[in-house]
Amino acid sequence: MNAITRITSNYDWITLLFFGVICVVWIAKSLYYHRFMEFLQLPFNNKYFSAILKEKNLESSFTLLMLVVQIVSFSLFLWACLQTSIVLPVNEVSSIPFWIILLGVFLFISCKIVLQVLISSVFDIQNYTNEFLYRKLSYLNYSALLILVGGAFSIYNKNLSISALYITFFIGFLVNLVGWLGILKNYQKFILRYLFYFILYLCAFEIAPLLIVGGYLTTK
């Protein structure tokens, strides 16, 4: 089933944005070549995490560069969804400017990271949660690269289809599912020890925000 295309304005600003993101990826690859190549193999082996955890350098410039890619990629994908009948009724068009979406995604991701770090400090479990959050963030960064490619294909396709966006979303979801399974496997003892708090974490930081954002978008 194809969605009705609503992207009627020129693509100049989108092209510049994609070019900027590609430059960020190029910088990350140039400055951290070996780490970048290991990052590309993330869903298939643990070389990337083994090297990072050995160096104990979780707050690296490479991670920050990829976080920029994640924020822009997710914002573009959400904007593309708002231009189709995935979110809005067929005869409606989104009036939300892209910069509002970008700001919202930035604040959403930033607040989640800050709150999770603060809570881990309160419970004095930083050693575990820092690695846990880093793994989760890495898989989100990886899925952002794939979503960026899928989003570009969807946006520049004259017949923007629901299928293309759904496939892109499914691929991103699958990558993060692999990441979560790896997290559950590697931290099962820690999770079982703090099972109640882990369930609260899932509800408060993973499930609830998605439900709130999804509910907001479907009512607009």
From TrEMBL:
Domain of life, source organism: Bacteria
InterPro entries, A to Z: DUF4271
Annotated TM spans: 13-32, 64-90, 96-119, 139-156, 162-183, 195-217
The UniProt record lists the keyword Transmembrane: yes
Presence of the UniProt keyword Transmembrane helix in the record: yes
Keywords: Membrane, Transmembrane, Transmembrane helix
Protein name: DUF4271 domain-containing protein
Annotated organism of origin: Pustulibacterium marinum
